[in-house]
Design a protein that fits this description.
It is globular and about 50 Å long. The protein has one helix spanning 264-272; strands at 4-7, 12-17, 21-24, 27-30, 34-40, 43-46, 51-54, 57-63, 67-70, 73-77, 81-87, 91-95, 98-102, 106-110, 114-118, 121-125, 129-133, 137-140, 143-147, 152-156, 167-170, 175-179, 183-188, 195-199, 202-206, 211-216, 220-224, 228-232, 236-241, 245-248, 251-254, 273-276, 279-282. By secondary structure, it is mainly beta. The strands form three sheets. It has an eleven-stranded parallel beta sheet, covered by helices on one side.
Length: 287
């Protein structure tokens, strides 16, 4: 039978240091500000049988060049909950399992120098964030789902102005699904370097108030390069705000919704793209 670790009161369940490897095949429950597994330049593995549930605190925290490999299940439930935290130059997270953020939680938090590659599923609901990169990079080769007002699937929020900036990649063949007032990917920060989101995959955005990808800030740039967009039911495909820039050279499909009575050009401007103090540039994509 798998083992169970219950962590609370700002304590740590397991600590790994300097090239140690920590492997979880059981259940870890974190509450009251605890940390399930903490690593300093260590490698942490949550296997396909491993389950980490956080109601207040952090499930896995790795700093200073370590790695996290999640093939199991990680859930962050509540506004003071983080499923996986990674920061420090060379610190990487790979997710082939399931990361779920609900009720204001953060599924994965990437600090300065943290990078994530997702081939699994990341979902955020009820005001949560799936992956939040603070001066880090996100590569999505899997599935990201954002549902409900206040929820964000992927977020880059650089603040230091150092390094090469933040980048979110949605790779070819992979999916970002946005429904019911959520935001799929958000560039939102004050970094002095470029924050970039590139979509080569599929973005499916529907529902009044939903936004597929938003570029906010003068150094924020959202590009639908070779991707395919479907936008329906009063949603917004790309949103440029606060001096941000968005561009399309991919393929876009717009269907009706609450704004169907508007003519085609208004439907295009208001439903697929919104501009608020930014710049919008279209190239060869189907419009």
């Amino acid at each position: 039978m798998p083992g169970t670790i219950n962590v609370n009161n700002a304590t740590t369940g397991i600590f790994g240091d300097l090239n140690d490897t920590v492997t979880n095949t059981g259940d870890i429950n974190v509450s009251a500000g605890g940390t399930g597994i903490k690593g300093n330049s260590a490698d942490v593995v949550n296997t396909a049988d491993g389950t980490i549930d956080v109601t207040e605190g952090t499930g896995i925290a790795v700093l200073n060049g370590g790695t996290v490999a999640n093939a199991g299940s990680v859930t962050a439930n509540g506004s003071s909950s983080i499923g996986i935290e990674a920061s420090g130059t060379g610190t990487t997270v790979t997710n082939s399992g399931t990361v779920t953020a609900i009720n204001g939680g953060i599924g994965v938090l990437l600090g300065t120098g943290g990078d994530l590659s997702n081939t699994g599923t990341v979902s955020s609901t009820t005001g949560s964030t799936g992956i939040d990169a603070t001066d880090g990079n996100i590569s999505n080769f899997g599935t990201v789902i954002a549902d409900g007002s206040g929820s964000t699937g992927l977020k880059a929020s650089g603040t230091t102005g150092t390094g090469s900036g933040n980048e979110i990649l949605i790779a070819a063949g992979d999916t970002l699904t946005v429904t019911d007032g959520a935001t799929g990917a958000l560039l939102d920060g004050t970094s002095a370097t470029t924050e970039l989101v590139v979509n080569d995959g599929t973005v499916d955005v529907s529902g009044e108030g939903s936004v597929g990808i938003e570029a906010s800030g003068t150094n924020a740039d959202a590009q639908n390069v070779a991707g395919f967009y479907t936008v329906s039911s009063g949603a917004t495909g790309l949103l440029a705000s606060n001096g941000g820039s968005v561009s399309n050279s991919g393929e876009i499909d717009i269907s009706g919704g609450s704004r169907n009575s508007r003519n085609e050009s208004r439907l295009w401007c208001d439903v697929f793209l919104q501009q608020m103090g930014g710049t919008i540039d279209f190239s060869t994509g189907r419009k």
